[in-house]
Write a structure and sequence with these properties.
Strand content: 5-15%
Helix content: 40-55%
Shape: globular
Number of strands: 14
Strand order of the largest sheet: 2-8-7-6-5-3-4
Number of helices: 17
CATH topology of the largest domain: Aspartate Aminotransferase, domain 2
Distance between the termini: 42 Å
CATH class of the largest domain: Alpha Beta
Number of domains: 2
């Protein structure tokens, strides 16, 4: 039987025009941006795959909900709608809204970490680790070894290595581990999921040692879909049921609603413990806003409450991850090295394998992202040595095993034709990969340097060593 084609489960009502720039414009734009795609102006970008954070398209129901915003300073009705949605779909009794996910990470770190503590997790995330370190903790990666191998087809590369975790707790003492930081899915590993069985085992171990488990639930809906598709005994359950079960094996969660929940701004901290929630509510007033708005307008909370409900719809999540898989499959068929299996929110290019001539100290992932933009106007982002930052004790660059470029797909924004254009550009850059130059810093911020750092090519006038010849070829094609 022939497999039937599938289509997006939505119709387009409003469109935003985008413009394709020429190569000279893109060369100038990336040079002015210091070869950092974060510093490009959006008007100079053709297809924007920088991030899926706050870049998704809201539904007609969400836009209608925006008109029902109760902008009272205290006790907005929209807060209670959001609180009910979080309880119904994630299961956390106590909700503390924040302006976005890192606001929740900040408050959580403040109320749980004391200087000298240790936090273990299934691979770091940039802002999460930054808040943990600023609060005085040391982060320890206890993810399974397969997560560091982009060629491994392990279905749950987000799993925790329980032997590593146990050894760490024995070494530093359970009293110095305030919580485990468990991501679902694991962004820096390529959007890879954790299995429900592994999270249950982690939760049981942690509670036997008096340690809390805090979930990064930013893309937990996507994680639930992978569990449904890949984990034994889960195929007949709904994504909503699996999501609730995932969260049941945690003591709380930080959430960026800008991802799974389909909104442009907003997040929350969910907790089960009343005393801990009281501390969080007290701090949210200091750093974010009153505990019934947390830095958000009422209309934003209403849109997020509706987005939570829409995010677990089977047709939506199947289409969302299917589009990512479509792009990933085209690249794999062309021989482009990518992280396997394809993850939930993005396709991750293996920059170290694509640019073996660029040494790690010249940031191959940063260089590849810049080259992709010059080729086609597609904006991606680096997830490698630049994102990893410097060791706070030694000052040396952290060099992770994975040196990746993330092609991040916003939800309900682009068509398959946009994915085709993206694939063609990646394949073209891959074919001329030996011409890509490395980069060095010209400006390096102290914190989260990947957002604002600036670079220049090493030994070349542009990101392509023969930029003039490339322009001539493009002109001839035109």
């Amino acid at each position: 039987m022939t497999t039937r084609s599938w289509a997006e489960p939505w119709k387009i009502k409003v469109v935003e025009p985008i413009r394709m720039t020429d190569r000279r414009e893109r060369e100038r734009a990336i040079r002015d941006a210091g070869y950092n795609t974060f510093l490009l102006r959006s008007e100079d970008v053709y297809i924007d795959l920088l991030t899926d954070s706050g870049t998704s398209a809201m539904s007609d129901r969400q836009w209608a909900g925006m008109m029902l915003g109760d902008e009272a300073y205290a006790g907005s009705r929209n807060f209670y709608h959001l609180e009910r949605a979080v309880r119904d779909y994630y299961g956390y009794e106590h909700l503390i809204p924040t302006h976005q996910g890192r606001g929740a990470e900040h408050i959580l770190s403040r109320i749980l970490i004391k200087p000298g503590d240790h936090v273990a997790g299934n691979m770091y995330f940039t802002t999460t680790r930054a808040h943990q370190e600023l609060a005085g903790a040391t982060f320890h990666d206890v993810i399974v070894a397969e997560a560091h191998d982009p060629r491994s087809e392990h279905p749950f590369k987000g799993d925790v290595d329980l032997a590593k975790l146990s050894a760490l707790v024995d070494e530093v003492g359970a009293e110095h581990v305030p919580y485990l930081s468990i991501a679902a899915t694991v962004n820096m590993a390529g959007g890879q999921p954790i299995s429900l069985a592994n999270l249950k085992a982690v939760y049981e171990f942690a509670h036997s040692r008096g340690i809390k488990v805090i979930l990064d639930a930013t893309r937990a809906v996507e994680n639930a879909w992978f569990i449904q598709q890949r984990e034994q005994g889960q195929r007949d359950r709904t994504v909503a049921e699996i999501l609730f079960d995932l969260c049941r094996h945690s003591d709380g969660a930080t959430m960026s609603g800008k991802k799974d929940s389909l909104v442009n701004i907003g997040g929350w901290l969910g907790l089960r413990d009343e005393a801990l929630a009281a501390k969080a509510r007290n701090l949210v007033v200091v750093f974010e806003g009153l505990h019934t708005y947390g830095g958000l307008a009422g209309r934003d909370m209403e849109a997020m409450a509706i987005g939570i409900e829409e995010s677990v719809q089977e047709e939506h999540i199947r289409s969302r991850i299917g589009q990512v898989l479509y792009l990933g499959t085209k690249l794999m068929e062309a021989g482009v090295p990518v992280v396997r299996p394809i993850g939930g929110h993005a396709v991750f290019l293996d920059a170290a394998a694509i640019l073996p001539h660029v040494p790690r100290e010249e940031f191959p992932a940063q260089a590849l992202a810049a080259a992709l933009y010059v080729d086609s106007g597609v904006r991606a982002m680096e997830r490698g040595t630049v994102s990893s930052g410097r060791d706070p004790q030694t000052g040396a660059n952290r060099v992770p095993k994975l040196e990746l470029v993330r092609l991040t797909i916003p939800r309900r924004v682009y068509t398959q034709a946009h994915m085709d254009v993206t694939a063609e550009s990646v394949i073209d850059v891959f074919e001329k990969r030996e011409r890509v130059a490395g980069l060095r810093f010209t400006y390096e911020p102290e914190y989260l340097r990947f957002f604002q750092a600036r670079f220049e090519p090493v030994g070349a006038a542009g990101i392509f060593k023969d930029a003039g010849a490339a322009r001539a070829v493009e002109t001839a094609k035109a």
